[in-house]
Specification:
- The structure holds two protein chains of two kinds.
- Chain A is α/β, with parallel strands linked by helices.
- Chain A contains seven helices and six strands, in the order αβαββααβαβαβα.
- Chain A has helices spanning about 1-15, 30-45, 95, 100-125, 145-155, 175-180, 195-205, and strands spanning about 20-25, 60-70, 75-80, 130-135, 160-165, 185.
- A six-stranded mixed beta sheet of chain A has the order 2-3-1-4-5-6, sandwiched between helices.
- Chain A is globular, with a radius of gyration of 17 Å.
- Chain B is of the alpha+beta class.
- Chain B is about 30% helix and about 25% strand.
- Chain B has one domain (about 5-120).
- In chain B, the strands form two sheets. In chain B, strands 1-2-4-3 form a four-stranded mixed beta sheet. Chain B has a two-stranded antiparallel ribbon with strand order 5-6.
- Chain B starts with 6 loop residues before the first strand and ends with a strand.
- The chains are: A alpha/beta, B alpha+beta.
- The interface of A and B includes residues 106, 110, 143, 147 and 155 of A.
- The structure holds guanosine-5'-triphosphate and magnesium ion.
- The site of magnesium ion (MG) has 4 residues of chain A, from helix 2.
């Protein structure tokens, strides 16, 4: 493997490297789209997709091409892929509680299941690096996180773990740090924009 | 009449003789009948990903809402020591894993070396 990677590195240097595609992954409602919007907006002024307090707002992966990240004194151009939240369970009854009618809720649940499968597909085929977003008020040891980080590790993809929503009073980003000691952690609020420079510095370093 | 829940416990020997798809099919068939499945040696990350994708395809309104999976949070394997770096992801073999229907299996508490779960019989 290392030899293959060196060969690939050699060829990519020779022929000009394809831009890295960085996937924004994480459980539903972690703040992936809010964060992706902030990154993309800081650079291009546009958003990548809609945000909602209702889980599974993102049900199709969306890509923004050629976003230039400036961090830690260096620049890196990447594609950003915002993905649907990954989970092992989807029950349409949950959406009824947000005031949706039965048909809407059932349709949202169906699209959400497709969205999860699509996110997994992108990870298998088309992603070169991952920003894994976690809500700092939630338990980082949720199985889906352990599984996703395990998959990312087994594919040897570079990863940054984001402890998001640190603006909330019950945020416990240190818990995330102790859950994933083997990976770089950046603590941010995608909503308020705290600490984004740390994230940009990490992105230019890790996904180069 | 006693209301109980069936528990299917698979040894690592048995799991070792099965292909990934056989394991996934067995797990989902069990879970969809309302059984709890205990694996002595858990699925690899890749297999868990496939299980998740297959689960998504089978979810249907008022039929099947998905699975609950639990395993111990960190194992020495997943910390990627020198050996696992040298030999790639191959050394990653999961630890004990419990899988059940989301309506019937609830995790009550999770510690580093202890999981407390609650299982109820199918409705
Ligand atoms: N307080 C706080 N709320 C946040 C932050 N980031 C996101 N949110 C809120 O969390 C909710 C979910 O945000 P999204 O960005 O839609 O989350 P997502 O991870 O893309 O969710 P899915 O697409 O459904 O998987 C929304 O109500 C956001 O306003 C944050 O940094 N702080
Ligand atoms: Mg989203």
């Amino acid at each position: 493997m290392p030899v293959m990677m060196r060969i690939r590195g050699f060829f990519s240097k020779l022929f000009g490297k394809r831009r890295s595609r960085v996937g924004i992954y994480g459980p539903p409602n972690a703040g992936k789209t809010t964060l992706a919007n902030r990154i993309v907006r800081d650079v291009t002024g546009e958003a990548i997709g809609p945000v909602s307090e209702v889980p599974h707002e993102t049900r199709r992966a969306r890509r923004k091409e050629g976003v230039e990240i400036n961090g830690g004194g260096s620049k890196l151009r990447i594609d950003i892929v915002d993905t649907p939240g990954v989970t092992t369970k989807i029950d349409y009854h949950e959406f009824l509680e947000y005031g949706m009618d039965q048909d809407e809720a059932v349709a949202r649940a169906r699209e959400a299941t497709e969205g999860v499968a699509e996110a997994m597909h992108w990870l298998r085929e088309d992603i070169d690096g991952v920003v894994y977003v976690l809500d700092s008020t939630q338990d980082p040891f949720m199985h889906v996180n352990i599984m996703m980080v395990g998959i990312i590790e087994s594919r040897k993809l570079p990863v940054i773990i984001v402890a998001n929503k640190i603006d909330l009073p019950d945020a416990a980003p240190q818990r995330i740090k102790s859950a994933f000691p083997q990976h770089p952690i950046v603590m941010v609020s995608g909503l308020e924009g705290n600490n984004m420079d740390d994230l940009y510095a990490r992105i230019t370093e890790v996904f180069r | 009449m006693i209301h109980g829940v069936q528990i299917d416990m698979l040894s690592s020997d048995r799991l070792g003789r099965m292909t990934s798809m056989e394991k996934i099919r067995l797990i989902l068939d069990d879970v969809r009948q309302g059984y709890i499945v205990v694996l002595e040696k858990g699925l690899t990350p890749e297999e868990q990903g496939k299980l998740l994708e297959t689960t998504m395809m089978e979810i249907s309104p008022d039929g099947f809402s998905g699975i609950e999976i639990e395993t111990y949070p960190s194992s020495k394997n997943s910390e990627g020591g020198l050996l696992s770096k040298l030999f790639g992801g191959k050394t990653q073999s999961g630890r004990l894993m419990v899988i059940g229907p989301v309506e019937q299996l609830k995790l009550l508490a999770r510690e580093k070396d202890r999981l407390i779960a609650w299982a109820s019989a199918a409705q």
